[in-house]
Amino acid sequence: MIRPGQFLLYPLSYLILYCHLSSAYLYPQATCSTCLPNPIAETYPYNITGVINSTFSVILLPLPYARSLLPSQFTNSILTNAYHRFNIPPDVYPLVIETSIDHDIRYNNTPAVADFSAFRTTFPFIDLLGDGYSNFRYTGFIYLPPDNIPAINGSQGYGYTVLPAYFNPADAPYKFATRTGKAIISAVYRTSDPPKHSRLVASTRFRPTQSSSIPLSFYKNITNQPLFGNKSSVCDNMMSFWNTSVTTGNYEPQPLIGDVVLTPPMVPRRRVWSGIQGVKAQRAFLEVNYLPCETLKGYQGTGEGDSG
Predict the structure, then answer these.
(1) Which residues pair with 235 in a beta bridge?
(2) Looking at residue 72, what DSSP letter applies?
(3) What is the pLDDT along the chain (308 residues), one digit of tens a residue?
(4) What pTM does this model have?
(5) How many angstroms separate the Cα of 73 from the Cα of each of 21, 123, 129, 214, 273?
(6) Angle at 125 between CA 121 and CA 129, to 5 degrees
(7) What are the angstrom distances between the C-alpha of 178 and each of 171, 185, 207, 274, 275?
(8) How far is C-alpha 164 from the geometric centre of its chain's CA atoms?
């Protein structure tokens, strides 16, 4: 666990990445009217920190179908025993859909990167190192605004396939809107702007619900698993804090239920899922990029109570 006052030493590639990302203020993508300020920037001044405002959804896929969506070298690398404790049956796999806005990203307590939206599928509980217990998250595809060159370059550094998309509205991944008397989160992602010349690539639509069979500890766990892409030797050490002022009290996570639409190449053909459980949450994060994945063996998150 990283404690206040501690800092991490970055490899040269990370420092170069930071210089590139700093120029992202030339490419503002979203103004998040419902996002809160970064609560840990002063605590960890020598690290990249920020707030991620997300709508997560969990699609429980038949295990053979889930394996077919993974690269061939990982089809037998799902640690099924690792997620059974989260009330997920053994014959299915929890594909995670995340629509998000990265907000108030800081280094040395000064703005580092402009707010931007993203849409991705992630495959948690992957045995990347082949040790039978270290959990990693795989991302193959990510949708980003096509003019955010720094974010695109940073994602491609992990081997993610970056796909262009326009987010409408820009802060829809997190903002509730009231329509026909019901609070909803509705977002549409298209290949171009204006919409009449574009193709739908994904959409999400959620409403609040009172409870969920998937516990909050599941989301705490997966958001603290290191991320990797098709360059499986380098990992993104993303540490999520679920115990700060942006996630507690009046800002506790909200259970959701709704619909998800995905299209190729994220899935082989267009699919619509209904009655999908999820959560609306914002969380502080601390990130270290481009670490050798083997250095994250046995990674357990930020500490007891945070990693689930």
Answers:
(1) 291
(2) G
(3) 454 444 444 333 333 333 333 333 333 445 677 788 999 999 999 999 999 988 999 999 999 999 999 999 999 999 999 999 898 988 999 999 998 888 899 988 888 878 888 899 999 999 999 999 999 999 999 988 887 787 888 899 899 999 888 776 665 555 665 555 455 666 666 666 555 667 788 888 888 999 899 999 999 999 999 999 998 899 999 999 999 999 999 889 999 999 999 999 999 999 999 999 999 999 999 999 999 999 999 865 444 444 44
(4) 0.85
(5) 31, 14, 12, 28, 27
(6) 115
(7) 15, 9, 10, 20, 20
(8) 17
- CB contact at 8 A, 86 and 221: yes
Name the strand (E) or helix (H) holding 153.
Answer: helix 149-156
| Whole-Å CA distances, 89 to 56, 134, 213, 296 | 19, 20, 11, 27
φ/ψ (deg, to 5) at 14? -70, -40
What is the greatest pairwise CA distance in the chain? 53
d(CA 119, CA 98): 6
Cα four-point dihedral sign 296, 213, 177, 266: positive
Neighbouring C-beta atoms of residue 197, cutoff 10 Å: 9
Count the neighbouring beta carbons within 10 Å of the beta carbon of residue 6: 11
